[in-house]
């Protein structure tokens, strides 16, 4: 595991170290992984061929997203990047791949260039300096490569309530995380990336299954809720527009420019 030197302290690192164990249990149990495959991973990689690709797993956590990508593309090579030393250690143990402890909001000289980068719910933790983050990610992805993401949607009709929630709930570090508007971040990233597609999603199962930790849903209840909530989620995701949805998926293409 490599560690970035001389990094200024970031509240997100302390926050994740604090919630690491609870986060692991709730966000990667069988029901949450089933949700991820049905509503996040599958739609995100649809139409993409990442056979033999090198993937940067950003905000990698303990490696579940990388293992999921390997299930879709068995010959893919994954490398983890995370601000948390605990996450990096767990990533290497779980995946057998390398992990690098870095703060994406701090200028970083990439040691490796990848065919694609993936971030699942990690970009909204980088709002302290999104411009630096996009520049760092652009260094990691070769021109013509892909940047895949899933993030909370700030165009959501209930975003005002969510912002208040972020301020009051101990599971959030409100000063350094917030939901994102896809079009706004795409504009900021325009020197480096061009959007290919964006999809909005996220209804009852997004909160009660995937986000059971913050909703205080007992783990034992999730297998019983899942058979009812997944069909409802599929129907909910047919609603038009972006305002009904808690999150978005996006695929961007790396521009043919030097960084």
UniProtKB/TrEMBL annotation:
* Hydrolase among keywords: no
| Entry-linked InterPro entries | Methyltransf_12 (IPR013217), SAM-dependent_MTases_sf (IPR029063)
- Keywords carried by this UniProt record: Methyltransferase, Transferase
Name of this chain's protein? Class I SAM-dependent methyltransferase
Family annotation (Pfam families): Methyltransf_12
| Keyword Acyltransferase included in the entry's annotation | no
| The Methyltransferase type domain, residue ranges | 57-147
Point out the coiled-coil segments of this chain.
none
Q: MF terms per GO, please?
A: methyltransferase activity
Q: Which GO terms describe its biological process?
A: methylation
């Amino acid at each position: 595991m490599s560690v970035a030197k001389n990094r200024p302290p970031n509240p997100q690192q302390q926050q994740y170290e604090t919630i690491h164990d609870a986060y692991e249990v709730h966000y990667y149990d069988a029901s949450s992984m089933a949700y991820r495959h049905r509503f996040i991973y599958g739609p995100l990689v649809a139409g993409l061929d990442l056979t033999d690709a090198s993937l940067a797993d950003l905000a990698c956590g303990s490696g579940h997203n990388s293992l999921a990508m390997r299930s879709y593309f068995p010959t893919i090579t994954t490398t983890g990047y995370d601000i948390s030393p605990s996450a990096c250690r767990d990533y290497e143990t779980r995946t057998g791949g390398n992990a690098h402890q870095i703060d994406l909001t701090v200028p970083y000289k990439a040691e490796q260039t990848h065919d694609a980068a993936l971030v699942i719910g990690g970009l909204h933790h980088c709002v302290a300096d999104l411009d630096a983050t996009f520049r760092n990610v652009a260094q990691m992805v070769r021109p013509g490569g892909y940047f895949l993401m899933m993030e909370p949607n700030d165009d959501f009709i209930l975003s005002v309530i969510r912002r208040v929630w972020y301020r009051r709930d101990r599971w959030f570090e409100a000063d350094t995380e917030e939901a994102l508007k896809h079009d706004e971040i795409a504009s900021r990233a325009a020197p480096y990336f061009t959007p290919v597609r964006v999809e909005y999603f996220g209804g009852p199962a997004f909160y009660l299954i995937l986000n059971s930790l913050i909703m205080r849903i007992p783990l034992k209840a999730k297998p019983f809720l899942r058979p009812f909530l997944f069909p409802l989620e599929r129907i909910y995701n047919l609603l038009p527009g972006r305002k009904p949805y808690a999150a978005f998926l996006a695929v961007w293409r790396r521009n043919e420019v030097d960084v």
